Amino acid sequence: MSEKISNKVINFGAGPGKLPFEVLKDVQNELLSYGNSKISILEMSHRSNDFKKIVENAQKRLTEILNIPENYKVMFLQGGGTGLFAAIPLNMMTTGSADYIVTGTWSAKAAKEASKYGKVNFVTPPTKTYTEIPNKSTWTFNPNASYVYYCDNETIHGIEFHDIPETKGIPLVVDMSSNFLSKPIKISKFALIFAGAQKNVGPAGITVVIVRKDFIGSAMPICPSIFDFAVVSAENSIHNTPPVFQIYFVGQVFEWIHKNGGVENMNILASKKSKLIYDIIEESQGFYLCPIKKDCRSRMNIPFRIKNNEELENAFVAGAIALNMLQLKGHRSVGGIRASLYNAVTFEDAQVLANYMNKFYKENN
Ligand SMILES: *Cc1c(COP(=O)(O)O)cnc(C)c1O
């Protein structure tokens, strides 16, 4: 039954996003009794050995698939991506100021939150519409900044960095919530990487944090214990009751990625899937419009308009729903359409959307 449903329905939602069907199925099978425990994962003590192993295995698998060096710690925090917007300055703003590269809604929110705890410098000139990464010649860093912060993939606007910003030695912090595990990354370039799970790696309620160990232990005295990297790290992410199910689930997704060619394969697929859609947009001669500059278009979230005509866009979304393609409506702040092509969206899924876009173009151009 559920197999049929999954095969028929394609979820293009931006977050919570599509999860690998195989993982959902395994989790369903195991839900009533985890391993030999005779109880559900949902009922399991976070102090049990079973759960300690779940945390350790998830850390181990992630370390393997991302090639995380020894001097980094993998932690699971609560409070979502938004929690990290506060936890980062609370732990890392040791000089009283930090630099923020603002390229969209999420990095703007992070900068606003950080300004509660110290001085925020804007690296890039402020822009009204987020359609590009401002040219590097316009960037100014503050040599006294504790860290430089940026968002690798702006989920709402569809802007993605295709290389790592050069910060002249200032520690680099990145929000990878919506493109985490979609490509290999050079961990050693970063002081901290974080990702809220619900975009590309699991259900909402857990945030994966990879932090260089020398950035643990400098939290401000006002930092809540649940956000204090030293506390979380010392108790291996079991300081208080963590979302046991969510950590178990992301661990299963790490296994799934490992079994499916790793981040190297996710990277190849992300390029192939997104190229399929961007090519149609480009070849439509203005019927489909993507406002984002070509050199920073996201492979995960593709926002587009249809002749800037809301009626056509509504018809597109309704027609897609009739064909079981769900959650294609753009974010309320930018309108239009947004197709999210996370890891669990297959190449075949992207092809179904591409065929529909071609057909819709022919019928409405
Ligand atoms: C969704 C999102 C967030 C916020 O995540 P929450 O878990 O809802 O707090 C932060 N950054 C990016 C890039 C996101 O896509």
From TrEMBL:
Cofactor requirements of the protein: pyridoxal 5'-phosphate
Transmembrane segment boundaries: none
KW Nuclease (keyword) present: no
Residues in Aminotransferase class V domain copies: 10-353
Enzyme class name: transferase
Keyword Isomerase appears in the UniProt entry: no
GO molecular function: O-phospho-L-serine:2-oxoglutarate aminotransferase activity; pyridoxal phosphate binding
Gene3D superfamilies attached to this UniProt entry: Aspartate Aminotransferase, domain 1 (3.90.1150.10), Type I PLP-dependent aspartate aminotransferase-like (Major domain) (3.40.640.10)
Pathway: Amino-acid biosynthesis; L-serine biosynthesis; L-serine from 3-phospho-D-glycerate: step 2/3
EC numbers on record: 2.6.1.52
Record GO biological process: L-serine biosynthetic process
InterPro entries given in the database record: Aminotrans_V_dom, Pser_aminoTfrase, PyrdxlP-dep_Trfase, PyrdxlP-dep_Trfase_major, PyrdxlP-dep_Trfase_small
Catalytic activity: O-phospho-L-serine + 2-oxoglutarate = 3-phosphooxypyruvate + L-glutamate; 4-(phosphooxy)-L-threonine + 2-oxoglutarate = (R)-3-hydroxy-2-oxo-4-phosphooxybutanoate + L-glutamate
PANTHER family: PHOSPHOSERINE AMINOTRANSFERASE
Family stated for the protein in its record: Belongs to the class-V pyridoxal-phosphate-dependent aminotransferase family. SerC subfamily.
UniProt protein name: phosphoserine transaminase
Species the sequence originates in: Ceratosolen solmsi marchali
